[in-house]
Amino acid sequence: MKKIILAIAITGISSASLLAQSPIQAPGQVPVHNQKKLSPAEQAKQNTERAAKELGLSNEQKVKWEVAALERINANAPMREKIKGSTTPEERRNIRQQTRVNNQKFEQTVTAFLTPDQKSKFDKLKEDKKEMHRNGRKGGRKLNDEVNKNTQQDPSKN
């Protein structure tokens, strides 16, 4: 009897210590709590470098992109801070709406100086991002569609 109680206690203690550990990180990934918070200028620079790599921006376009990105980051920063605090559903709705307006203004600014090829790449990147966002919810749209398709073909596979 004592051995059973001792075994249960040891199992409980080891389980608790495993749960207290931080989540497993991908190789080369910095844990979230160890990441340095970037300044708005650094965020804009990082955003510009990513866009330059993916869209093939010229030096002139990089400068314009960075200015537009910094403007958007600075416009959205107060709303990001406000939404962290306690807000009502109505306030959150208004904050999201204003953030959308700021993002649309950014997109209008950058698409004004992109070439047609860059615009199509930019639109494709936006679509990919939307799709990833959709798939991140509720098990992913593609996965759910695939499951629904399979169950419709053969209802006995449940």
Report the sheet with the most strands, covering strand number, pairing sense and barrel closure.
Answer: none
For this structure, the quaternary state is single chain
| Overall pLDDT score | 79
| Low-confidence segments | 139-144
Instruction: Compute the number of strand runs.
Output: 0
CA(first)-CA(last) distance: 43 Å
SSE topology string: HHHHHH
Structural Rg? 24 Å
Morphology call:
elongated
Q: Structural class per helix/strand content?
A: mainly alpha
Strand percent estimate? under 5%
Helicity range of the residues? over 70%
Number of helices: 6
Describe this structure in words.
- The protein is mainly α and 158 residues long.
- It has 6 helices and no strands.
- It has helices spanning 2-20, 40-55, 59-84, 89-113, 116-135, 141-153.
- Helix 2 packs across helix 3 (59-84) and helix 3 runs antiparallel to helix 4.
- It starts with a helix and ends in a 5-residue tail after the last helix.
- The model is unreliable at 139-144 (pLDDT under 50).
Which terms would index this structure?
single chain, 158 residues, mainly alpha, elongated
Topology, element by element:
Elements: H1 2-20, H2 40-55, H3 59-84, H4 89-113, H5 116-135, H6 141-153
Helix pairs in contact: 2-3, 3-4
Give a brief rundown of this model.
This protein has 6 helices and no strands.
